Amino acid sequence: MRKLSLLTAVFLLSILIISGCSKNAEGNNSGNDKVVLNVIDPFGTEPQDSQLTDILKQYEDSHPNVTIKRQSVPAENLISKVIQQASSGSAPDVIFSDAQMTPKLASSGAITPLDKYMDKFLGDDDLTSVYEKSITEIMKYNNKIYGVPVGNNTEVYFYNKDVFEKDGITPPKTWDELNNVVGKLKENNEYSFGYSAIASEFASWSFLPYAWMKGKDLKHFNTSETIEALNFWTDFVKDGYTPKSVLNWTENDVATQFINGKFPMFQGGSWIIPIMEKEDINYDIIPLPTPEKGGDSMGPIGGEVMVIGKNSKNEKAAWDFIAWTQDEEVLNPINETFGYLPAYLPAQEKYLKEHPKFESVAETLKHGKSRTAVVGIDYPEISKELWKGIQNVITGENTSDEIVKQIQDKVDNLSD
């Protein structure tokens, strides 16, 4: 937990007494001035929809002068809608945005920097004392803070403990160990391992950690290390350890196949954990295996950030809401429902004690990477080229050598 000065402690205590709300909010907005906060989010499906509705009501109940008008839109339409609204001077006050889209929103002028608010929020602390250094990548654009995380997800391995114990198998920590494990699992199972290589962001999201763990990124893609990583990942399908159906499966589809016994191990997002908890299956989670023993497991940093629309007439009230959400009593229930890990470290500490399976998620995110960090607003276009390439390698239409060259050419052309 971060240290508080006596003055800050007194202030926070007064907030708690007056409003019964979060200790992180700047104030309780309980004056006579009525405020209508316009909020837009991509959480229109259950259980996220009900969870966010409850959170917004909690804020309204503790801030009687604030009314929240919420609009949920599909994730694929949210960014274009916000940019359009901002261009007409009617951007929402608070936007729940996919973390990877912060560069696009910021570069288009649709959102406002939050540095002055974050400085006050942090007090004597540094940003990296309350958020992992890796997480701060998704909060910034051009060295300015634009977003505050709701929570984060990433890629981990799920495995069936009963099958592993029955076959005398230890969960893998390295690529060599993973190759040995899938071989042993194949002896008594139709398939050993599952993942998503569907023609969408899922495929890029799932593969990129393997390139990162070989020390490469999207700006330095045409290398022998990236070729090795791509061959390693796609060969599971070619060698019969992973079903070719992964070309058509989302990660939730992969989880369903795991539950149904198709394979005893799979790679998936941490948002699947709440799904698994409802199933009668003895499972556990490990970080992605690393190329060499003792290496750092890495994964993509996913989740949403809260940003404030450009020229919001309720900017201070919007920030008050964002700061309020960082309290563990507010933040942790959201993350429990979403299958995320709280990014705010003071809240994360309690969360991990209550949800120990997320330790592997925390370990992975500590060394996680933002997909937009090195290519910025060009990422969606590059990712599309990548997932198409991954599919072509699996089907045999192209070699890994050809695909990494195509990706590098795409990156170079976009950066010219």
From TrEMBL:
Residues 1-24 form the signal peptide. The keyword Cytoplasm does not apply. InterPro entries: Bact_solute-bd_prot1, SBP. Gene3D superfamilies: Periplasmic binding protein-like II (3.40.190.10). Keywords: Signal. Pfam families: SBP_bac_1. This is Sugar ABC transporter substrate-binding protein. It comes from Tigheibacillus halophilus.
